[in-house]
Fold this sequence. Notes:
This protein is an alpha/beta fold.
Amino acid sequence: MAARKPLIAGNWKMYGRRANLGELEVLWRSISPVAAHVDALICPPAPYVQNAAWSARETGILIGAQDCGTESEDAARTGDVSAAMLADVGARFVIVGHSERRALFGETDAVVRRKAQAAQRAGLTAIVCVGETRLERDSGQAGDVVVRQVRDSIPDDAESLVIAYEPVWAIGGDRTPTPAEIDEIHHIIRGTLAQRFASGASDIRILYGGSVGPKNAAEVFAVGGVDGALVGRASLKAADFAAIILAHPAAK
Length: 252
Ligand code: PGA
């Protein structure tokens, strides 16, 4: 199996102000000794992406965005932000298909796929989020739902692609799946990718997301198929996010 460099991504969601970008410097002070072994990514709200990229320019912290438009070319899409614009101001990654966008903004797998393709065309790495609801898990459909989302949301290109498995019921709360449950779904995703892409699928990183924090990060990272984490709340404070990064075995 190809060695995949762990990726630990922070999703600031719609929190913070410009002043929060000061956290980047604090974060870098803690993680710089291990940065060669772990990719650390921060995705601030869109208006702050450019400032974040500037603040992080002399650090190894990667900057990304939380969403992008479906169009690759400039277009009449009032209020939308294109992947090309995000790349232009220094983003390297973009999250697409986060469950909040799927649930609250009605994004379908087809829309997520177009966003991922637009991201790749702009030279960004797309982090495609998938994950089942509590109801879907309780009715034994978690695997099927995730397979469908992966198949229908991912672009044709396996390059510059990351998958984040985020069970909807584990986001923003204090419940997480057991290591065995994470392992099972990560294996299912890996198998789906292997079927879809003749080659290259083994380079795709599969992250776990949903209530990852300093206390449970080591347990999550110990799960065989987990290549890193997508972190919400605990990424807002540099000390917490650094503790998560430092909990990764690659950082030891
Ligand atoms: P959380 O969010 O870490 O606050 O649960 C994760 C996410 O939504 O990506």
